[in-house]
Design a protein that fits this description.
The chain is an alpha+beta fold and 135 residues long. Strand 2 and strand 3 form a beta hairpin. The radius of gyration is 17 Å and the shape is globular.
């Protein structure tokens, strides 16, 4: 429990920093997105995908974009995260100690609101992995 609480605090600090960098990328004051409340909420999820003997016949998680400002993801060694790139699903290879940051729907901005540049949330999905990868 204590580890999870500390992890949550550190991810919150990281999200504040990322939002400051994104603010600057939009040509805004560094604290602008945080002032607008973009970093106010936090949701911590843990997903468990049990071993599947026939992943090719399972549905898995459907294609989606994240309904948030940003998502910070710590992958396990198994992976399964994919992103849509040039109309093809590409595996995001897990790297030990690395975090994946996804821009979510709420950060997808209209150029007419912030002027240029703008951000676009990218579709993601989790592909099913086979039993042999889990051993």
């Amino acid at each position: 429990r204590d580890i999870l609480i500390e992890y949550s605090k550190q991810v919150k600090r990281l999200s504040k920093t990322i939002l400051e960098l994104l603010s600057e990328a939009l040509g805004l004051e560094p604290n602008r997105l945080n002032q607008l409340g973009c970093g106010a909420g936090q949701l911590l999820l843990g997903h468990y995908y049990p071993a599947c003997p026939e992943p090719e016949v399972t549905i898995g998680v459907t294609d989606h974009t994240d309904a948030s400002f940003i998502t910070i993801l710590l992958q396990d060694q198994i992976g399964g995260l994919q992103v849509l790139h040039r109309n093809k699903w590409v595996d995001v290879q897990p790297r030990k100690g690395a975090l994946v940051v996804n821009l979510g729907d709420l950060l997808q901005v209209s150029p007419s609101f912030f002027l240029y540049p703008s951000f676009v949330s990218n579709p993601i999905r989790r592909k099913n992995t086979c039993d042999s990868l889990r051993s």
